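In this section we walk through a basic example: taking a raw amino acid sequence and producing a predicted 3D structure, encoded as discrete structure tokens. The instruction is simple. Fold the sequence below.
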Amino acid sequence: MQWMIEKKDRQKVALLEYLMQRPELRLSIKMGQEAFDWSKYIALTTIRDLVADLATFYPDFEPFVTLSDDEKTLKRR
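The resulting token sequence is shown next.
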């Protein structure tokens, strides 16, 4: 069924699944790039979009993931 979803959305789903399986509470952008073989631009764009989507869909909850101010680390709660 994933073939029906746009590539950008498939990337966000893959990233979310990856984060759910990781025991670490912090993930460097570089680790994300290496895990998915993404460029820095694609990794940052996907992360920003995922964070924004989660905030939109779950406005009453504390964010599951946040991007650090320097955009080098993804933090999971």
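Looking at the output, two observations stand out. The CA atoms of residues 6 and 12 lie 10 Å apart. The first strand starts at residue 26 and ends at 28. In the next section we compare this with other chains.
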